[in-house]
Amino acid sequence: SIDNHQMGDQSPSHSDYSSGVDSTNYFQQCKYIHEVELVNMKLQMRILETHLETKDRLLRNLEDIIDEQETRIANMEDFIQGRTAEYTPSTVMLHGISALSIDFGALSEENLRLKEEMRTRMRKERINDLMEADEDYESDMTSVSGEGCESARNGTNEVMTQSAIVASKARAFIDEHQISRLKRCAEELKNEKDELKRLSQDMKDAFTVCMGEVRLLLESKTVDFFKVLMERYKAEMERRKTLHNQLVELNGNIRVFYRIRPLLSTRDQAAIRIDSMDEGVVHLEHSSGRKTSRSADFVIPTRFTQNQIFDKVSPIVTSCIDGYNVCIFAYGHTGSGKTYTMEGPSSDPGINQRAILQLFESAQERGRDIEYTIKLSMIEIYNDKIRDLLSPSSSSSSSLLLRRDESGHLSIPGLEGRIVNSPTDVENVLKEGSNSRVVAATDANENSSRSHVIVRVHVHAKNNVTGMTTIGRLNLVDLAGSERVSQTNATGQLLKEAQAINKSLSELGNVVFALRQGQKHVPFRNCVLTRMLEDSLQGDSKTLVLVHIAPEEAHVCESISSINFAEKIGQVQTKVNSAFKRAESVRKSSRIPGKLDSPQTTPKKTTK
Ligand code: ADP
Ligand code: MG
Q: Which residue among 93, 187, 368, 454 sits deepest, i.e. has the most Cβ atoms within 10 Å of its Cβ?
């Protein structure tokens, strides 16, 4: 193979190469096998030798045994045949056997004893366990278990049974004790529970009694306190009214009353109501749900009849007899009840008729030395034009003019004046004027609520004793509706009308405001209405503005506008002293402020 490599044989035969290796291995393997076999054989030899040796030894032993047995047999034969006295080996064996049987008996006895002792111990342990379960009965347990242990120690089955009985008795005894103890505990707990129950009931009763007493005490105290408060409140209210009246008088005798007409339909909801405690306050609920309160000199209770209302007004009316000038204005939006207050239904006439009749009656009462002449005129102001309602020739086109006469007084030349001598005269004249207003309005396609109607009463008094004459003027004015006419949509006649009404009401507000504030300059000249009433408004004349309000929710906006007007003209300027100032500031602060719509009347001039 090596040669083959050296000869450059690039691909030596695999078989040649492997056969060379195989022969070497084979040789080596054979050699090993032989060697191993040799060793094996040697080993087998050794084993055989050992076997042989052992066999030899055994043979020798057997021979010895046989010899010995033969000797024994011989001996036994001798013994049996009586040749020898005793057979030594068998005697020894018998002795051994008897000794062993004795030992065996002792051992079994010992075992039994140990077994018994073990059982006793176990029982004892069990009793101990039971004893530990109830420490209170340890002594009982000890004695019982002691008994048990003692009897157990006897080590007989009978005793065992007895101890078991004793143990079960002990258990029963303990159980009984435990049960009776638990029963006692339960009884005690029940008693305690009953006691607590009784106590809680007693507490409850006592608490109820106490609370009743406290409630009674509180109630009586609260009622007393409330009474005192109410009295003080009323007293303060009276004081406020008195002070306010004094203030109004000091500022020129201008008063602002509210008249809230009743709801016309039961389906309607009232958004305005009068304070139940203070007749000078109205509460207004806005459509948003917000509530505000406003005050005036007086709020005529809704339940007041026409007659009751006139009772409130009559004192200033009668001052006309004494030569004072009086103006009564009915302000409010259309439908708020102005005409109802001033004219009223023929079955229940309003202020106009009642006032003239009152003047008539007063004149008759006083008429011994004084000669009274009562003259009536009725005027309508529409679009700033004066129309005579008592002149037969009066029509919507003709108008009168205001002139200042030689004495400096403003007069309306050509104005019809009717002297009235009886209540019937008064009624007839008023009816005539009212009718001609309606006719004139219909002729001109006007709405009768779009003009101001003035019933003017002249009370001429001539003192026959002194020869002095006085003239008192009473102006009863049913103003045009104060509602806003949308000027964006209005055109022509409607726009003119709306502008005239807005202007005249606004100027009237300014004039009343200025008078009430005691201002030096009063803007009478800005419109026909105020110019015509100039004489009757200034000086020591008396003015009453009746602001009419419809309580329905639907009229809330108009009502707010009217309330704003009343607020504006109702302000009082105090110049007298600081005490009055304080009183007024208290009155003002008692009003709940609320932002209302901007007033329809915006006075141009205000003073601090
Ligand atoms: P205005 O003159 O302000 O437009 P009216 O006087 O014509 O309002 O009143 C409108 C309606 O309300 C009328 O039907 C009138 O009878 C009624 N009314 C007004 N005030 C009262 C009142 N105090 N009691 C009963 N009805 C009234
Ligand atoms: Mg009217």
A: 454
344 Cβ closer than 6 Å to some ligand 1 atom: no
What's the token pair of residue 488?
């964006």
Q: 590 a known binding residue?
A: no
Q: How confident is the model over 394-449, as pLDDT tens digits?
A: 555 568 888 888 888 888 888 999 999 998 999 999 999 988 887 666 666 666 68
Tell how far the Cα of 338 is from the centroid of ligand 1, in angstroms.
Answer: 7
Nearest to 256 by CA among 604, 605, 601: 601
* Locus of tokens 């009082």: 572
What long-range pairs does 498-504 form, CB within 8 A, spacing at least 24? 500/382, 500/383, 500/384, 501/450, 502/600, 503/384, 503/527, 504/381, 504/384, 504/452, 504/480, 504/528, 504/529, 504/530
pTM of the predicted protein model: 0.59
List, as ranges, residues with CB under 5 A of the ion ligand 2.
Answer: 338-339, 449
For residue 549, the ligand closest to its alpha carbon is 1
**Taking phi first (over 0 means left), then psi (-120 to 50 degrees means alpha), and beta for anything else, what does residue 155 get?**
left
Rounded to whole angstroms, the Cα distance separating 395 from 375 reads 22
256, 249 contact by CB (below 8 A): no
Distance 340 CA to ligand 1 centre (A): 5
Where are any strands of DSSP class E within 89-207? Answer: none
Atom of ligand 1 nearest to the CA of 342: 6
Q: Angle at the Cα of 80 (from 77 to 83), degrees rounded to 5?
A: 80
Ligand 1 atom 10: residue of nearest CA:
335
The CA–CA distances, whole Å, from 477 to 308, 385, 398, 453, 545 equal 19, 15, 21, 6, 9
What region does 344 belong to: left with phi over 0, alpha with psi -120 to 50, or beta? left
- Which amino acid belongs to residue 191? N
* CA–CA gap between residue 105 and residue 402 (Å, rounded): 166
Q: Strand 272-274 relative to strand 281-285: parallel, antiparallel, unpaired? A: antiparallel
Instruction: Please list, in sequence order, all residues whose beta carbon lies within 8 angstroms of the beta carbon of residue 317, skipping any fewer than 6 positions away.
Output: 326, 328, 355, 358, 359, 474
From the CA of 261, how far away is ligand 1's center (Å)? 7
For 332-383, write each residue's pLDDT tens digit.
999 999 999 999 999 999 999 999 999 988 888 877 778 899 999 999 998 8
Report whether 382 contacts 399 (CB < 8 A).
Answer: no
Q: What is the CA(263)–ligand 1 centre distance, in A?
A: 10
Element (H, E) at 416: none
Q: Is the CB of 449 under 6 A from ligand 1?
A: yes
334 has binding-site annotation: yes
469 to each of 6, 319, 321, 376, 464, how far by Cα in Å?
181, 15, 11, 18, 9
pLDDT for res 158: 75
Q: How far apart are CA 363 and CA 378, in angstroms?
A: 21
| Whether residue 350 has its Cβ less than 6 Å from ligand 1 | no
State yes or no: 338 annotated in a binding site. Answer: yes
Report how far residue 485's alpha carbon sits from residue 495's, in angstroms, rounded to the nearest whole number: 8
Summarize pLDDT for 55-97 with one digit per residue, the tens. 788 788 878 888 877 777 777 777 777 766 665 555 556 666 6
11: pLDDT strictly greater than 80: no
What is the chain's length?
608
Q: How far is the CA of 284 from the centre of ligand 2 (A)?
A: 23
Cα–Cα distance, 252 to 512 (Å, whole number): 10
